[in-house]
Design goal:
By secondary structure, the chain is α/β, with parallel strands linked by helices. The protein folds into two domains: about 240 residues, Alpha-Beta Barrel (TIM Barrel); about 70 residues, Alpha-Beta Complex (Type Iii Antifreeze Protein Isoform Hplc 12), CATH 3.90.1210. It contains twelve helices and twelve strands. Helix 1 packs parallel to helix 4, helix 1 runs parallel beside helix 10 and helix 9 packs parallel to helix 10.
Length: about 350
């Protein structure tokens, strides 16, 4: 797999900063003005990208009112029919161009999750720099193949995926010659319980499949994105809303601007804190060794007297010889007169 590629102006690889995506989803609540305000707010909050969902009720499901099409999964939308939910939540296609342009003006990458071939065609017209495969579409191999055929990075959520589903999706991309793949750990609950986050999977996805990995998060708060960062996530996606009071199907589990800003800050701090594997000391750390233990003369000693546990001690600071010499020095004779408080040196003792 290719582990170094571009998404818009952002370079993605194993050493790059986390690429942070604000998921617009249904958080415009039917208003283009809300959508455009969300773009601006995402920029203020520190996002690198804003992501849409490109579908209509007719492209994602059937207008059928049978039990098969009624939500009953323990979600916040239970009791609704799929067609009605998507009719309420979709982002009108005629808005897409204006949203893409607004994002570009703000310096944000803008891309989307397509849900059928026609939505891919629309996004191609808008020159989308990447595609996202939503969790529930990971089994739609024809869609994945069509997306992969466009030669752009493919970000795949694994929320409902078994291992075979992931492998089939990866194979679909590779058949189309596309190895620019990101796998996102995702828990497809809304909101997701933190105990089901299982962030160690971020590391495993990267290692097992040789891809860039990341997180599509539906938990509340910033804890899970921070943990994902420590486990090597290079893309983090979080639902974003200007103000939960505007309502909408996804409002209850989406971060507002203040919360998203806090998450971005926490993720960036986690990046800095994670660091690299390096046993050498910084200049400041080396200076700090002055406060480490070393051997000091603890009582006045005359030449010829024996070093004992009473007159030679391991104490702070660290200007004397290393405490590893303590047992070697105990029982030796002092070569010169020594005053309490002098840092011990090896040549102070008779080494015979």
């Amino acid at each position: 797999m290719t582990k170094s590629f571009q998404i818009g102006t952002f370079h993605i690889d194993e050493k790059s900063p986390v690429f942070i995506i604000a998921e617009l989803s249904a958080n415009h609540n039917g208003s283009l003005d809300n959508a455009l305000a969300t773009v601006k707010a995402a920029k203020r909050a520190g996002a690198d990208a804003i992501k849409l969902q490109t579908y209509t009720a007719d492209t994602i499901t059937l207008d059928v009112k049978t039990d098969d099409f009624r939500l009953k999964q323990g979600t916040i939308w239970d009791g609704k029919y799929l067609y009605d939910l998507y009719q309420e939540a979709y982002t009108p296609w005629e808005w897409h161009k204006e949203i893409f342009e607004a994002a570009k003006k703000e310096g944000l990458v803008c891309f989307s999750s397509p849900f059928d071939f026609s939505s891919v065609d629309l996004l191609e017209e808008l020159n989308t720099p990447a595609y996202k495969i939503a969790s529930f579409e990971i089994t739609d191999i024809p869609l994945i193949e069509y997306v992969a055929s466009k030669g752009k990075p493919v970000i795949i959520s694994t929320g409902i995926a078994e291992q075979e589903d992931i492998e089939l999706a990866l194979d679909a991309c590779k058949r189309k010659g596309n190895t620019q793949i990101v796998l996102l750990k995702c828990t497809s609950s809304y909101p997701a319980p933190i105990e089901e986050a299982n962030m160690i999977m971020v590391k495993d996805l990267a290692e097992r499949y040789g891809v860039i990995s990341g997180l599509s998060d539906h938990t509340m708060g910033s804890t899970v994105p921070v943990v994902a960062t420590v486990f090597g996530a290079k893309i983090i996606e979080k639902h974003f809303i200007v103000d939960r009071s505007i309502g909408g199907p996804d409002a209850s589990f989406s971060m507002n601007e203040e919360e998203f800003t806090g998450m971005v800050k926490a993720v960036r701090e986690a990046e800095r804190a994670s660091g690299t594997i390096d046993y050498t000391l910084t200049e400041k750390q080396a200076k700090g060794r002055e406060f480490s233990r070393s051997l000091y003369i603890a009582e006045d000693i005359k030449a010829g007297e024996i070093f004992t546990a009473k007159n030679l001690r391991s104490v702070r600071p660290g200007f004397g010889v290393h405490p590893k010499y303590y047992n070697k020095l105990i029982g030796k004779k002092a070569m010169i007169d020594l005053v309490k408080g002098i840092p011990m040196q090896l040549n102070f003792a008779d080494n015979k």
